[in-house]
Design brief:
Elements: E1 3-7, H1 16-26, E2 33-37, H2 39-48, H3 52-61, H4 64-71, E3 73-76, E4 79-81, H5 84-94, E5 106-112, E6 118-121, H6 127-133, E7 138-140, E8 143-145, E9 148-152, H7 161-166, E10 171-175, H8 183-186, H9 190-207, H10 213-216, H11 230-252, E11 257-259, H12 274-287, H13 289-348
Parallel strand pairs: 1-2, 1-10, 2-5, 4-7, 10-11
Antiparallel strand pairs: 3-4, 5-6, 5-9, 8-9
Helix pairs in contact: 1-12, 9-11
Length: 349
Protein backbone atom coordinates (compact mmCIF):
# COMPACT_ATOMS: atom_id res chain seq x y z
CA UNK A 1 0.00 0.00 0.00
CA UNK A 2 1.39 3.39 -1.03
CA UNK A 3 0.94 6.19 1.55
CA UNK A 4 0.75 9.85 0.47
CA UNK A 5 1.18 12.99 2.58
CA UNK A 6 -0.59 16.23 1.58
CA UNK A 7 0.94 19.22 3.39
CA UNK A 8 -1.28 22.30 3.53
CA UNK A 9 -0.65 26.03 3.32
CA UNK A 10 -0.40 28.30 6.37
CA UNK A 11 2.72 30.53 6.27
CA UNK A 12 4.63 30.35 9.60
CA UNK A 13 2.19 27.75 10.93
CA UNK A 14 3.74 25.37 8.42
CA UNK A 15 6.63 24.61 10.77
CA UNK A 16 4.08 22.30 12.42
CA UNK A 17 4.58 20.03 9.39
CA UNK A 18 8.06 19.17 10.69
CA UNK A 19 6.72 17.78 13.96
CA UNK A 20 3.90 15.97 12.18
CA UNK A 21 6.24 14.21 9.74
CA UNK A 22 8.61 13.12 12.49
CA UNK A 23 5.76 11.88 14.68
CA UNK A 24 4.33 9.85 11.79
CA UNK A 25 7.73 8.28 11.16
CA UNK A 26 8.03 7.38 14.86
CA UNK A 27 4.72 5.52 14.54
CA UNK A 28 6.38 3.42 11.85
CA UNK A 29 4.62 5.03 8.91
CA UNK A 30 6.59 5.13 5.68
CA UNK A 31 5.60 8.04 3.45
CA UNK A 32 5.85 7.07 -0.22
CA UNK A 33 4.75 10.31 -1.96
CA UNK A 34 4.37 13.96 -0.91
CA UNK A 35 2.36 16.89 -2.27
CA UNK A 36 2.69 20.36 -0.81
CA UNK A 37 1.18 23.82 -1.08
CA UNK A 38 2.90 27.06 0.00
CA UNK A 39 4.82 26.38 3.25
CA UNK A 40 3.73 22.75 2.78
CA UNK A 41 5.75 22.73 -0.45
CA UNK A 42 8.72 24.38 1.32
CA UNK A 43 8.80 21.74 4.08
CA UNK A 44 7.66 18.88 1.82
CA UNK A 45 10.47 19.46 -0.66
CA UNK A 46 13.05 19.33 2.14
CA UNK A 47 11.55 16.07 3.39
CA UNK A 48 11.42 14.53 -0.08
CA UNK A 49 15.08 15.54 -0.51
CA UNK A 50 16.13 13.90 2.78
CA UNK A 51 16.94 17.27 4.36
CA UNK A 52 14.20 17.65 6.98
CA UNK A 53 16.60 17.48 9.94
CA UNK A 54 18.74 20.26 8.47
CA UNK A 55 15.65 22.41 7.88
CA UNK A 56 14.45 21.84 11.44
CA UNK A 57 17.83 22.77 12.92
CA UNK A 58 17.93 26.02 10.95
CA UNK A 59 14.30 26.92 11.67
CA UNK A 60 14.83 26.42 15.40
CA UNK A 61 17.66 28.97 15.41
CA UNK A 62 15.61 31.76 13.82
CA UNK A 63 15.01 34.89 15.84
CA UNK A 64 12.49 37.60 15.10
CA UNK A 65 15.20 39.89 13.76
CA UNK A 66 16.61 37.18 11.52
CA UNK A 67 13.14 36.66 10.06
CA UNK A 68 12.97 40.43 9.36
CA UNK A 69 16.22 40.19 7.40
CA UNK A 70 15.24 37.06 5.50
CA UNK A 71 11.88 38.46 4.39
CA UNK A 72 13.45 41.59 2.89
CA UNK A 73 10.49 43.86 3.66
CA UNK A 74 10.15 46.95 1.45
CA UNK A 75 8.34 48.22 -1.58
CA UNK A 76 8.72 45.44 -4.12
CA UNK A 77 6.99 45.16 -7.45
CA UNK A 78 3.94 43.00 -6.83
CA UNK A 79 4.60 42.43 -3.10
CA UNK A 80 5.67 43.96 0.19
CA UNK A 81 8.65 41.62 0.61
CA UNK A 82 11.05 39.74 -1.64
CA UNK A 83 11.70 36.66 0.49
CA UNK A 84 14.63 35.93 -1.81
CA UNK A 85 17.02 35.00 1.01
CA UNK A 86 14.54 32.42 2.33
CA UNK A 87 14.29 30.72 -1.04
CA UNK A 88 18.03 30.87 -1.72
CA UNK A 89 18.67 29.20 1.63
CA UNK A 90 16.18 26.48 0.75
CA UNK A 91 17.70 25.94 -2.69
CA UNK A 92 21.27 25.71 -1.45
CA UNK A 93 20.87 23.70 1.75
CA UNK A 94 17.51 21.98 2.06
CA UNK A 95 16.42 20.78 -1.35
CA UNK A 96 17.48 18.74 -4.36
CA UNK A 97 18.05 20.71 -7.57
CA UNK A 98 15.35 18.88 -9.54
CA UNK A 99 12.26 16.78 -8.85
CA UNK A 100 13.96 13.79 -10.42
CA UNK A 101 16.79 13.90 -7.84
CA UNK A 102 14.46 13.66 -4.84
CA UNK A 103 14.35 10.56 -2.66
CA UNK A 104 10.58 10.18 -3.01
CA UNK A 105 8.06 11.53 -5.57
CA UNK A 106 7.00 15.11 -4.82
CA UNK A 107 4.54 17.62 -6.27
CA UNK A 108 4.03 21.34 -5.56
CA UNK A 109 1.01 23.42 -6.54
CA UNK A 110 0.64 27.09 -7.47
CA UNK A 111 -2.08 29.28 -9.02
CA UNK A 112 -2.14 31.05 -12.39
CA UNK A 113 -2.86 34.66 -11.45
CA UNK A 114 -4.91 35.41 -14.57
CA UNK A 115 -6.69 32.15 -15.42
CA UNK A 116 -7.20 30.97 -11.84
CA UNK A 117 -6.09 27.47 -12.81
CA UNK A 118 -4.14 25.16 -10.55
CA UNK A 119 -0.55 24.77 -11.77
CA UNK A 120 1.21 21.51 -10.91
CA UNK A 121 4.99 21.14 -10.64
CA UNK A 122 6.41 17.61 -10.63
CA UNK A 123 9.43 17.63 -12.95
CA UNK A 124 12.46 19.73 -13.82
CA UNK A 125 13.97 22.53 -11.72
CA UNK A 126 12.34 22.90 -8.32
CA UNK A 127 13.32 26.40 -7.15
CA UNK A 128 10.70 28.26 -9.22
CA UNK A 129 8.09 25.74 -8.11
CA UNK A 130 8.72 26.43 -4.42
CA UNK A 131 8.77 30.21 -4.89
CA UNK A 132 5.55 30.16 -6.91
CA UNK A 133 3.78 27.88 -4.45
CA UNK A 134 4.79 30.20 -1.56
CA UNK A 135 3.98 33.52 -3.28
CA UNK A 136 1.36 34.78 -0.78
CA UNK A 137 -0.63 37.46 -2.65
CA UNK A 138 0.46 41.02 -1.81
CA UNK A 139 3.21 39.81 0.56
CA UNK A 140 5.48 38.19 -2.05
CA UNK A 141 5.61 39.15 -5.71
CA UNK A 142 4.18 36.67 -8.23
CA UNK A 143 6.65 34.40 -10.03
CA UNK A 144 6.95 34.34 -13.81
CA UNK A 145 7.14 30.78 -15.17
CA UNK A 146 6.85 29.82 -18.85
CA UNK A 147 4.95 32.98 -19.71
CA UNK A 148 2.53 32.79 -16.78
CA UNK A 149 2.42 34.76 -13.52
CA UNK A 150 1.97 32.43 -10.58
CA UNK A 151 0.91 33.00 -6.96
CA UNK A 152 0.34 30.89 -3.86
CA UNK A 153 -1.29 27.52 -4.52
CA UNK A 154 -3.53 28.10 -1.48
CA UNK A 155 -5.74 30.32 -3.64
CA UNK A 156 -7.18 27.22 -5.36
CA UNK A 157 -5.88 24.09 -3.56
CA UNK A 158 -4.60 24.67 0.00
CA UNK A 159 -4.32 20.96 0.89
CA UNK A 160 -3.44 19.03 -2.32
CA UNK A 161 -4.97 15.64 -1.59
CA UNK A 162 -5.71 15.14 -5.29
CA UNK A 163 -2.03 15.43 -6.17
CA UNK A 164 -1.15 12.59 -3.80
CA UNK A 165 -3.74 10.48 -5.62
CA UNK A 166 -2.14 11.48 -8.94
CA UNK A 167 1.21 10.23 -7.61
CA UNK A 168 -0.40 6.84 -6.97
CA UNK A 169 -1.16 7.02 -3.24
CA UNK A 170 -3.65 4.42 -1.96
CA UNK A 171 -3.94 6.03 1.48
CA UNK A 172 -3.65 9.83 1.89
CA UNK A 173 -2.82 11.63 5.13
CA UNK A 174 -3.67 15.34 4.85
CA UNK A 175 -2.55 18.19 7.11
CA UNK A 176 -4.89 21.19 7.32
CA UNK A 177 -3.40 24.24 9.04
CA UNK A 178 -6.59 26.29 8.63
CA UNK A 179 -8.88 24.30 10.90
CA UNK A 180 -8.89 27.05 13.56
CA UNK A 181 -10.20 29.56 11.03
CA UNK A 182 -13.52 27.93 10.29
CA UNK A 183 -16.42 30.36 10.78
CA UNK A 184 -17.88 28.44 13.73
CA UNK A 185 -14.52 28.46 15.53
CA UNK A 186 -13.74 32.10 14.77
CA UNK A 187 -16.89 33.06 16.66
CA UNK A 188 -15.45 31.46 19.81
CA UNK A 189 -11.91 32.77 19.36
CA UNK A 190 -12.54 36.09 17.65
CA UNK A 191 -10.33 38.03 20.07
CA UNK A 192 -7.39 35.69 19.50
CA UNK A 193 -7.71 36.02 15.72
CA UNK A 194 -7.87 39.79 16.01
CA UNK A 195 -4.72 39.81 18.15
CA UNK A 196 -2.95 37.58 15.60
CA UNK A 197 -3.71 39.97 12.78
CA UNK A 198 -2.43 42.89 14.86
CA UNK A 199 0.79 40.94 15.46
CA UNK A 200 1.30 40.64 11.71
CA UNK A 201 0.90 44.41 11.28
CA UNK A 202 3.28 45.12 14.14
CA UNK A 203 5.81 42.62 12.81
CA UNK A 204 5.97 44.26 9.39
CA UNK A 205 5.99 47.72 10.89
CA UNK A 206 9.11 46.82 12.88
CA UNK A 207 10.65 45.01 9.91
CA UNK A 208 10.31 48.12 7.75
CA UNK A 209 12.10 50.23 10.34
CA UNK A 210 8.94 52.23 10.96
CA UNK A 211 8.83 53.97 7.58
CA UNK A 212 5.64 52.10 6.66
CA UNK A 213 4.10 52.28 10.13
CA UNK A 214 1.02 54.12 8.87
CA UNK A 215 0.35 51.17 6.54
CA UNK A 216 0.74 48.38 9.05
CA UNK A 217 -0.07 49.93 12.44
CA UNK A 218 -2.02 53.14 11.92
CA UNK A 219 -2.20 55.45 14.92
CA UNK A 220 -5.56 55.25 16.69
CA UNK A 221 -7.79 58.31 16.44
CA UNK A 222 -9.28 59.81 19.60
CA UNK A 223 -12.58 58.23 20.70
CA UNK A 224 -12.51 55.79 17.80
CA UNK A 225 -11.73 52.11 17.45
CA UNK A 226 -8.35 51.58 15.82
CA UNK A 227 -8.70 50.60 12.17
CA UNK A 228 -6.86 47.44 11.04
CA UNK A 229 -3.66 47.87 9.07
CA UNK A 230 -3.16 46.69 5.51
CA UNK A 231 -1.61 43.37 6.56
CA UNK A 232 -4.41 42.69 9.04
CA UNK A 233 -6.93 43.15 6.26
CA UNK A 234 -4.94 41.01 3.85
CA UNK A 235 -4.06 38.18 6.24
CA UNK A 236 -7.52 38.04 7.80
CA UNK A 237 -9.21 37.90 4.40
CA UNK A 238 -6.82 35.23 3.10
CA UNK A 239 -7.33 33.07 6.18
CA UNK A 240 -11.12 33.19 5.81
CA UNK A 241 -10.93 32.44 2.07
CA UNK A 242 -8.39 29.65 2.56
CA UNK A 243 -10.47 28.00 5.28
CA UNK A 244 -13.54 27.99 3.04
CA UNK A 245 -11.67 26.73 -0.03
CA UNK A 246 -10.07 24.01 2.10
CA UNK A 247 -13.42 22.81 3.42
CA UNK A 248 -14.80 22.67 -0.11
CA UNK A 249 -11.82 20.81 -1.56
CA UNK A 250 -11.63 18.30 1.29
CA UNK A 251 -15.35 17.59 0.97
CA UNK A 252 -14.94 16.89 -2.75
CA UNK A 253 -11.76 14.82 -2.39
CA UNK A 254 -11.52 13.68 1.24
CA UNK A 255 -8.28 12.21 2.58
CA UNK A 256 -8.21 8.88 4.37
CA UNK A 257 -6.87 10.64 7.47
CA UNK A 258 -7.00 14.35 8.35
CA UNK A 259 -4.61 15.97 10.85
CA UNK A 260 -5.56 19.45 12.11
CA UNK A 261 -3.15 20.99 14.64
CA UNK A 262 -4.37 23.79 16.92
CA UNK A 263 -2.54 26.93 15.78
CA UNK A 264 -4.95 29.82 16.28
CA UNK A 265 -2.48 31.80 18.44
CA UNK A 266 0.20 31.90 15.73
CA UNK A 267 0.60 34.93 13.48
CA UNK A 268 1.13 34.70 9.72
CA UNK A 269 4.82 35.66 9.90
CA UNK A 270 5.95 34.26 13.26
CA UNK A 271 8.57 32.02 11.70
CA UNK A 272 10.73 32.39 14.82
CA UNK A 273 8.37 30.02 16.73
CA UNK A 274 9.47 26.89 14.85
CA UNK A 275 10.22 24.67 17.85
CA UNK A 276 6.86 25.44 19.47
CA UNK A 277 5.01 24.84 16.22
CA UNK A 278 6.76 21.52 15.58
CA UNK A 279 5.71 20.45 19.09
CA UNK A 280 2.10 21.37 18.29
CA UNK A 281 2.37 19.22 15.18
CA UNK A 282 3.62 16.27 17.22
CA UNK A 283 0.74 16.68 19.68
CA UNK A 284 -1.77 16.63 16.82
CA UNK A 285 -0.41 13.26 15.67
CA UNK A 286 -0.31 11.88 19.21
CA UNK A 287 -4.01 12.72 19.63
CA UNK A 288 -4.75 10.58 16.57
CA UNK A 289 -2.15 7.86 17.13
CA UNK A 290 -4.66 5.09 17.88
CA UNK A 291 -6.85 6.05 14.93
CA UNK A 292 -3.84 6.14 12.61
CA UNK A 293 -2.67 2.69 13.75
CA UNK A 294 -6.18 1.29 13.50
CA UNK A 295 -6.80 2.61 9.98
CA UNK A 296 -3.48 1.47 8.61
CA UNK A 297 -3.74 -1.93 10.30
CA UNK A 298 -7.26 -2.24 8.91
CA UNK A 299 -5.92 -1.58 5.46
CA UNK A 300 -3.26 -4.24 5.99
CA UNK A 301 -5.85 -6.73 7.23
CA UNK A 302 -8.00 -6.07 4.18
CA UNK A 303 -4.99 -6.78 1.99
CA UNK A 304 -4.38 -10.05 3.86
CA UNK A 305 -8.04 -11.03 3.45
CA UNK A 306 -7.83 -10.26 -0.28
CA UNK A 307 -4.67 -12.38 -0.59
CA UNK A 308 -6.33 -15.24 1.34
CA UNK A 309 -9.42 -15.02 -0.89
CA UNK A 310 -7.28 -15.24 -4.01
CA UNK A 311 -5.36 -18.15 -2.47
CA UNK A 312 -8.58 -19.96 -1.59
CA UNK A 313 -9.97 -19.37 -5.08
CA UNK A 314 -6.79 -20.81 -6.58
CA UNK A 315 -7.00 -23.83 -4.28
CA UNK A 316 -10.68 -24.34 -5.18
CA UNK A 317 -9.89 -24.13 -8.89
CA UNK A 318 -7.03 -26.61 -8.43
CA UNK A 319 -9.29 -28.98 -6.48
CA UNK A 320 -12.01 -28.72 -9.13
CA UNK A 321 -9.41 -29.36 -11.82
CA UNK A 322 -8.18 -32.49 -10.01
CA UNK A 323 -11.76 -33.73 -9.48
CA UNK A 324 -12.50 -33.18 -13.16
CA UNK A 325 -9.37 -35.11 -14.14
CA UNK A 326 -10.33 -37.93 -11.76
CA UNK A 327 -13.83 -38.10 -13.26
CA UNK A 328 -12.29 -38.26 -16.74
CA UNK A 329 -10.04 -41.13 -15.61
CA UNK A 330 -12.98 -43.02 -14.10
CA UNK A 331 -15.04 -42.48 -17.24
CA UNK A 332 -12.12 -43.65 -19.37
CA UNK A 333 -11.66 -46.78 -17.25
CA UNK A 334 -15.39 -47.50 -17.44
CA UNK A 335 -15.35 -47.21 -21.20
CA UNK A 336 -12.35 -49.57 -21.39
CA UNK A 337 -14.11 -52.11 -19.12
CA UNK A 338 -17.28 -52.01 -21.22
CA UNK A 339 -15.30 -52.47 -24.38
CA UNK A 340 -13.48 -55.48 -22.87
CA UNK A 341 -16.78 -57.06 -21.75
CA UNK A 342 -18.24 -56.59 -25.24
CA UNK A 343 -15.18 -58.23 -26.75
CA UNK A 344 -15.42 -61.18 -24.38
CA UNK A 345 -19.08 -61.69 -25.14
CA UNK A 346 -18.28 -61.74 -28.87
CA UNK A 347 -15.74 -64.49 -28.33
CA UNK A 348 -18.16 -66.59 -26.30
CA UNK A 349 -20.76 -66.27 -29.02
Amino acid sequence: MKIGLALGAGAARGWAHIGIIKALEELGIKIDVVAGCSIGAYVGAAYASGKLDELETWANTLTEWQVFGLLGVGFKRGGLASGQKVFEKHKQEFCAATFEEMNIPFTAVATDLYSGKEVVFNNGDINDAIQASCAIPALFAPIEHEGRWLVDGAVVNPVPVNQCRQLGADFVIAVNLSADFRPQLIEHFEKEHQDNQKKTDQFLSKASGGFMKQWFSPDPKPNKVQAPGIMSVMSGSLEILQARVTRSRLAGDPPDLLIEPQLRDVGLLEFHRAEELATNGRLAVERLAQQISYQLNLEKNEEKIDVECRKNEAQTENKESKESALEDDIEGNTQETNAQETKDESKDG
